[in-house]
Amino acid sequence: MLGILTVLLSSFVLAFHNVTVRVLFSEHIVLSLFLLGGYVKPDLQNSFLLMFMRMLLVVPLMASLAFKLYPSAFKELRELFRRDRFDVLIQAFGCGVLMFVYIASLYIAIGLISTGIAITLFFTYPVFTALLAWRFFGDRPTLYRWLVMGIIFIGSVLTIPQSSATYSSHAIAIGIFASIGAGIVYAFYCVIAQKCLQKFHPIPFTWISFASTLLLSGVSLLFWPPPNIQLDWTPIWIGSIFSGLISFIGHTLNNLGIRMIGATTASIIGSSSPALTALVAWATISETLNVVQSLGIGIVTFGIALLSGESFVHRRTPS
């Protein structure tokens, strides 16, 4: 139960991060009071820029916080360079690379289509996580879990937007591709994280993922800088720092949840994130969905109730 609550709290925290990114890319009336947003275009170069700015201040701040929360973090980081721990170092850095890729893809998706829809399509990743866990850990999905994954897939299909005055068909196609692609990459992240977290604490592991993202986004900006245009840097910095702080909290909680209940279960429980994101987006930036899309998000969330029912049945069934 604690693992389930940890992952659900992670999803709620990350919902605010998703809405913050949406505001940075697109102008909205926040809390029905302030007109904010639209500071950068939703493209790959600006995704690199936002990631770099977000991590530039957050990584050192999180380092000091992480070492206070977990005093043995620095010792564990040093031990990664021992020969017998080198495999853990490779896995941790590999997760950092995957984090960089999926965040860049997800940023583009959030910038091009509604936040709730982008996150719902991203959350097709439990299907891929289950298949990868079956391949690498022999964790074969039960019939019940196949049912849950099918429900998630159906709900995700219902959320796919149609072209309109707000969203062109080209932008929608790129947003859909970016969302699902980010989900596939995140599935690999979850499975490798599960293996790594068997030998490594979640707090230094999360810090390595963030530090890797900082390094890779900085290198990407060197080779592919954004156009030389005038930007309003103050709100961009504020939004980047805020999104970085809540993202670190959300990822740390998610990694704790993976350690407690495994990648497959955590990923399916985390499917509540589309509904939470849509709710937060509606409450903060008045972003609305049509009836079919709302139904799709509700169907995705329904899978969480089914998974909880599976856990209850397992506890009640005599061995």
UniProtKB/TrEMBL annotation:
Keywords: Membrane, Transmembrane, Transmembrane helix. InterPro entries: EamA_dom, EmrE-like. GO terms for cellular component: membrane. The keyword Transmembrane helix applies. Residues 46-159, 174-308 form the EamA domain. It comes from the Bacteria. This is DMT family transporter. It holds the Pfam family EamA. It comes from Amazonocrinis nigriterrae CENA67. Belongs to the EamA transporter family. The chain crosses the membrane at residues 50-67, 88-110, 116-134, 146-165, 171-192, 204-224, 236-253, 265-285, 291-313.
